[in-house]
Amino acid sequence: MELRQLSYVEAVARYGGFTRAAERLHIAQSAVSAQIRALEVELGVTLFARTTRKVALTPAGEMFVARARRILAELDGARTEMNEITAVVSGRVTVGATGMLGPYDLPRALARFRDRYPGIALRQRSGLLVSLLGALDQGELDLVIGAVHAEMPPRFDALPLADEQLILALPVGHPLTRSGRLTLGEARDEPFVSLPPGSGQRWILDDTARSAGFTARVQYETDGPAGIRSLVAAGLGVGLLSRSAAEDPCGPAIEIRHLHPPPVHPPIGVIHHRDRPLNAAAQSLRHHLVEMAGPRPDPAHRDEAEAGASLDP
């Protein structure tokens, strides 16, 4: 029994005759007839009842065609998977990432991906979320990694990677450190350090301050969480900072206070465009990023026992 015989039988059953099947298969009708006749001899059954007017499956033929179709479908699936593997091995992915990814270790995840798929050309761009989503719209990026805001346009879809908290970062010895947990309103008269407008962190600061009844006076802008921490440590202001950035032991000394109510930080996720199908390489990277994230912790179980602490380098 040969695979081409299965294909010929399925085609005759599908198109209702030897002539139409041969036309669809682009081979001679005599070749189709000869192969099916040889298969019937091998099996010892008649698969088709032939008359001068029509060709119909016998009961044995119906059973055989059902199995043949399953076999052919499995073969098609195998070809598709092999094509995807080939595409992944030789693919290209361009990913954009914001500067505030919380506890998600993107460099480590990308390094693991490179080891796993050394043939993929991987390119990364950094920037504010609004500009990266614009690049995603234009097809310049395959994926964006950043905060997944509830107000994100529906043309974007995302898979979560990590959760994050925002705290108030203060210079060491600042008067507000005498309090335990603060409201953001208690810092209304302070100069703020923040990311520029258009960033998720700036949007959260402005929205949280607005809810507290004031407008945050941003005197210093920087391009990332390390910059916020450095400027706060230098005594130039206070700022909202991700807990993971504030607790990084390599940064300059600051003090932190948890805010009540806590500012809502959206989850970090990997974002793609719904209307632009991902190539095989980009699909593999998205799956890998989620795999590297592991299970997300329950926010209700986070330890906030220490309301404030001095963080030394």
Summed up, the helix count is 10
Tell me the name of the CATH class of the largest domain: Alpha Beta
Number of strands: 13
Strand share of the residues? 15-25%
* Biggest sheet details: 5 strands, mixed
Category by helix and strand content:
alpha/beta
What is the CATH fold-level name of the largest domain?
D-Maltodextrin-Binding Protein, domain 2
CATH architectural name of the largest domain: 3-Layer(aba) Sandwich
Percent of residues in helical segments?
A: 40-55%
Average pLDDT score: 86
Please state the CA-atom Rg, rounded to the nearest Å: 31 Å
Residue stretches low in confidence (pLDDT < 50, at least 5 long) are: 299-313
Q: What order do the strands of the largest sheet run in, or round the barrel if closed?
A: 4-3-5-12-6
How many discrete structural domains?
A: 3
CATH superfamily of the largest domain: Periplasmic binding protein-like II
Give the CA-CA distance, first to last residue. 73 Å
Sketch the topology as an H/E string, one letter per element. Answer: HHHEEHEHEHEEEEHEHEHEEHE
Overall shape: it is rod-shaped
Write a brief structural summary:
Helices cover 40% and strands 20% of the residues. It has 313 residues and is of the alpha/beta class. The protein has three domains: 3-88, Arc Repressor Mutant, subunit A, CATH 1.10.10.10; 91-163 and 266-301, Periplasmic binding protein-like II (D-Maltodextrin-Binding Protein, domain 2, 3-Layer(aba) Sandwich); 166-265 and 302-311, D-Maltodextrin-Binding Protein, domain 2 (3-Layer(aba) Sandwich), CATH 3.40.190.
